[in-house]
Design goal:
This protein is mainly beta. It has one helix and nine strands; from the N terminus they run αβββββββββ.
Length: 117
């Protein structure tokens, strides 16, 4: 739980302090899509809001445009599967009603079985 809070604070801090290009906001049905940018102009975060609460998908990108995190929210609460990519690993966090219920961690040396039928 502490690690997920640290990750969330890190991504919020990244968005808050690295803004040369102003964020953009566009209406999409009953949601507002907010897009924040890195200093180099590439997208940093795309997130949706409804009634000023994070709702739907939150996607974070590094300064080269690679996805670093996919998260899901419903009315400001963490839900479903979150994916966080590191340099050599992938973490899958599973939330139910804002509570972390499981964590899976894969490293690049993990073997994967493939069925090519």
């Amino acid at each position: 739980m502490k690690k997920s809070l640290i990750y969330a604070l890190f991504f919020i801090a990244t968005v808050g302090f690295a803004q040369e290009k102003s964020p953009t906001f566009e209406k999409s049905g009953d949601l507002v899509k907010a897009t924040y940018y890195h200093d180099n102009g590439l997208v940093s975060v795309q997130v949706f809001f409804k009634d000023k609460k994070v709702t739907g998908e939150w996607i974070s990108f590094d300064t080269e445009g690679n996805k670093t995190q996919i998260a899901r929210y419903k009315e400001g609460k963490k839900i479903g599967k979150w994916f966080i990519w590191g340099k050599e690993s992938l973490k899958e966090l599973n939330y139910t009603n804002n509570v972390l219920v499981s964590v899976n961690h894969w490293k690049s040396e993990s073997s994967v079985a493939v069925n090519n039928k």
